[in-house]
Amino acid sequence: MESRLIVVGVDGSEGGRRALDWAVDEAAARGGSVQAVVAWRWDRIEFGPANTVTPVDERQRATEVLDDEIRGLAVRKGPGCTVAGEVVEGPPADVLTAAARTADLLVLGSHGHNRLRHTVLGSVSEECVRKAYCPVVVIPVPAAAPRTTNEPALRG
Q1: Alpha carbon of 149 to those of 42, 76, 152: distances in Å?
Q2: Residue 143: per-residue pLDDT
Q3: Residues 6+ apart with CB under 8 A from 96
Q4: Residue 139 has pLDDT above 90, yes or no
């Protein structure tokens, strides 16, 4: 049986965490492996010594995000859960689709942005769906639990 590769984008958000958990469960069910990818970008201008954040700092922050997510995964899923990790500089959609070029699946988490923020910032998930060479799964934001008729309505 051939091993399946699932690439998952993580960014330190709840959406990225849900995507990582889903990818690990899917890999376990199908006998595959997971590669977690954090994309980072340096998009600031350096102005000499007054600038306190450097590209090296940004890369370090991305590495810490990845390490934290993998540690958290071990707590949620157990110590036997292993995930490869990679930190890559570049636009997130480009980095993720390149990492998933030979993968069987790309998994992303939705952040559930409102329409205005989506219009201004765009959507990494949407761009990945257009650019990917493999199927893409977007894990949605959980729906709020419906209120039962026995629960009192909140009064403002």
Answers
A1: 51, 33, 8
A2: 73
A3: 7, 9, 37, 39, 106, 108, 124, 128
A4: yes
